[in-house]
Write a structure and sequence with these properties.
189 residues, mainly alpha, Rna Polymerase Sigma Factor, Chain: A, Arc Repressor Mutant, subunit A, 8 helices, 69% helix, 0% strand, sigma factor activity, DNA binding
Length: 189
């Protein structure tokens, strides 16, 4: 009895090392790939340089592209498209390198800020308390101008508009207030 005609195609068997003539017909040759790589190395490096920022990474990407296309040369059916495969591989590897860099930057642990010692913290509290006491000793307008100018981060014009006084008055109150704070802060407590 004759076996029925198979309805599915048999799996393709990849060429073995001994089948060099069949392999050459199925893809580009090692010599052609190597010559293409040598002839277009600088242009491939320039392509990578447009996508990446340092020379070492560009060289790594171009070399990795050659290795990848070399290992997959059996899939390059038309030897004329070898350069296109190399270029596309350089672009893809450059994209991957950039993605890894961006991800690395995002995942970098941010260093902890230097922590103040307990003594420094206590000193800062004392200094802040001294500043608050000195601010309470200022005239009302001087205190308002300094608080709006330096703690609310307003410009002199914004302070003048907020308080309904002239720009010159803001400058005068601010100058006198700072002078009074210097005296109060330098005085022994």
């Amino acid at each position: 009895m004759i076996a029925p005609w198979p309805t599915t195609r048999p799996a393709q068997i990849p060429p073995q090392r001994g089948d060099s003539d069949d392999a050459m017909a199925a893809g580009t040759t090692v010599d052609h790939l190597t010559e293409t790589y040598r002839a277009h190395y600088r242009s491939l490096l320039g392509l990578a340089a447009l996508l990446l920022d340092d020379t070492a990474s560009c060289e790594d990407v171009v070399q990795e592209a050659f290795i990848r296309v070399h290992s997959a040369r059996g899939r390059v059916r038309d030897p004329e498209k070898t350069l296109a495969y190399l270029r596309q591989t350089v672009v893809n590897l450059s994209r991957s390198a950039l993605r890894r860099r961006i991800l690395g930057l995002k995942l970098l642990s941010k260093p902890m800020p230097d922590m103040a010692s307990a003594e420094e913290g206590a000193y800062d509290l004392l200094e802040r308390d001294q500043l608050i006491q000195a601010m309470r000793g200022l005239q009302r307008r001087q205190r308002e101008v300094l608080v709006l100018r330096y703690f609310a981060d307003m410009t002199e014009a914004q302070v003048a508009e907020t308080l309904g006084i002239s720009l010159g008055s803001v400058k005068a109150y601010g100058s006198r207030g700072i002078a009074a704070l210097r005296v109060a802060m330098e005085a022994p407590a």
